[in-house]
Amino acid sequence: MIGEPLFDAPTIAGRVAELGAQISRDYAGKKPLLIGLMSAATTFVADLIRAIGVPCQLDFIAVNQFGDGDGIALEKDAAIPVRDRDVILVDDTVDTGLTLQYVVKTLQERAPASLAVCTLLDRPHRRIVDIEIKYRGFEVPDVFVVGYGLDYRGRYRELPALYAHGTWPA
Length: 170
Ligand code: 5GP
Ligand code: MG
Prior knowledge:
By secondary structure, the protein is of the alpha/beta class. It has helices at 9-26, 42-50, 98-108, and strands at residues 2-7, 33-38, 57-66, 71-76, 86-94, 114-122, 135-139, 144-146, 162-165. It is 22% helix and 34% strand. The strands form two sheets. A six-stranded mixed β-sheet has the order 4-3-2-5-6-7, with helices on both faces. Strands 1-9-8 form a three-stranded antiparallel β-sheet. The protein is globular, with a radius of gyration of 15 Å.
């Protein structure tokens, strides 16, 4: 059910390098705390952190979606305190924005010095809630994307490129 590659590995690497350079400029003299959303964003954040030229820390958060997707809970919290830190939240895909809205609100309550969102993929026309995205890799059309850490029912995370999957998970 895997279709055409949307973005091949060199294209992804090139874009990640650009994002890393942009973050390095914006955070010159600072020590940002990258917080990756598990599990899909782990591949992206692993590449991104190596493209950033300022000292970084790395942590992870996992969220659980239940019900129709409007129920969201923290499954694994960050271990490093975010108070007074320059946090960069790293996600794989922003679709409706509901997941990120929950995580952003949760982290904002802990009084970081700043909070920016970096997402590999963005599907802006699907947005339900307004989310400010500072760094985005690629805009994607209405296809379900797999590979480069993104799964379809637990499969395809290991693929080095991003592919369109023929169907959306039920
Ligand atoms: P949102 O809450 O913004 O609607 O959903 C975002 C989450 O849904 C993402 O973090 C991601 O885990 C999942 N998601 C959205 N679109 C895709 C996609 O095309 N492929 C995969 N594998 N996951 C997706
Ligand atoms: Mg996700």
